[in-house]
Fold:
Amino acid sequence: MKKTPNILLINPWIYDFAAHDLWSKPLGLLILAGLLRAQGYNLRLLDCLDVHDSRLQAIPGIKPATRRAFGTGKFYRTQVPKPSSLQQFDRNYYRFGITPEMFQESLLEGVKPDAVLVTSTMTYWHPGVQESIRLVKEHYPDVSVVLGGIYATLCREHAISNSGADHVLSGPGETQILKLLEKLTGYSSDKPSHNLKSDTLPWPAFDLLPQLDYICTLTSRGCPFRCPYCASDLLFPQFIRRDPIEVVDELEYWHKEHSVVNVAFYDDALLLDATEHLLVMLAEVGRRRLPLHFHTPNGLHISGLSAEVCEALFLAGFKTLRLGLETGDDERQQQLGAKVKPGAFSSAMANLTKAGFQPEQIGVYLLCGLPGQDPNEVAQSIRMVLDHGARPHLAEYSPIPGTPLWSEALRCSPFDLANDPLYHNNSLLPCRSDGFGLEELQWLKQLCRV
Ligand code: SF4
Structure:
């Protein structure tokens, strides 16, 4: 067994027209960190999206980060030149996060790493991944860089050709990282490794972050549904749920040791089989009297919002809810997997209201800009949500390679989706058409504000 290796973990910049911190943390990377820590690795995190570094306040030209309710807010941002393929769009483009100079200083501050792990999220944010890896390689040309995460999984070939990483891991990193690091560093631990098939996940190492406004958690991974636009099964082929009591142990730890109050669930199917899972967990939260505020940025399944579940959500301290309605159009609903039966939305809203939720706590996601979609269909859905007193949130469609809807997106998009992930960016309305362009999108956004 060799000396304990030093691993540098990097959460790269976002490059985009717009980005918000809606409980955004590199959860996958922090789970890997938890796994590696248990094996004895020395870890350091370089978070390009840090909003708490006081040096940022003194930098001219950088737009300030702001904090809002429940720990969400805006990142620091700097306007940067657009990549050549985005020149045609008349909008400002930004790098969100710290400056490259701060990144370089941080690289030099710590000990030289034995390996660097870089995570990735949206496919169209790959410029931030490339830039991070380029700077790492400038400082440490002989250190191996491993790239994982969503972009690395969904656009593997693009990442291999363009990211500059020495190794690209696709799929859940926990099943691959220990073997790879052993190969790269020669280190192997005699500590028992995590049983990845069990109903537990390594606890994310949130304490590597400089300051915690909130944490995110996963009580399950994957989703048993197969919606044609969604990448859930490509990222997590198996649906695995954690022991609900062990989830509460984790929440209690972060609350008691790090004063965390706000918790965002990243689950894709939080309400599935709630009697055996979520309700058990929430009862335990109540029994331990944990004064937590919960949020569901990923969207809840409307069919799971029974009167019993809504009451439990309210009593446990859920403060903001996002529901996944997708559309109020029955035909479209059928095409998307028929998860919301006619009348289910009204019934869910009635249950939430009866439980005590106020309309401003309830946001409803509506898909917008699907291939061949008529803007009037979205407008009708917006009115339906408003009529029920909730807030509509447009979820502009982002085409994802490997999903059932991908080939239709390729057919109808005016952009080169297949070769340039920058065109997957949902704010470009990638599957725009003559009848559904940016003007119609503005009209729909206006309707949402009524
Ligand atoms: S959209 Fe939601 S329900 Fe559908 S497959 Fe994805 S995570 Fe599951």
Notes: The mean pLDDT is 95.
